[in-house]
Amino acid sequence: MNYFEENIVQNIHQQQWAFIDCAIDGHVLQITLNRPAKKNALHPQMVNEIAFALSHAHFNNEIRVVLFKANGDVFCSGADLKAFMGISEDFNSSIPSPSNSILLGEIFNQVHKPIICQLHGNIMAGGLFFIAGSHFTVAAKGVKLGLPEVKRGLFPFQVLSALLDNISKQNAINWCITGDEITADTAKEWGLITSVVENEELGKTTEELINKLTTNSPNAIRMGLQAFEKITKNEGEHQYLMEMLQKTIMSADAQEGIKAFKEKRTPVWTGK
Question: Angle at the Cα of 161 (from 205 to 147), degrees rounded to 5?
Answer without folding.
Answer: 70
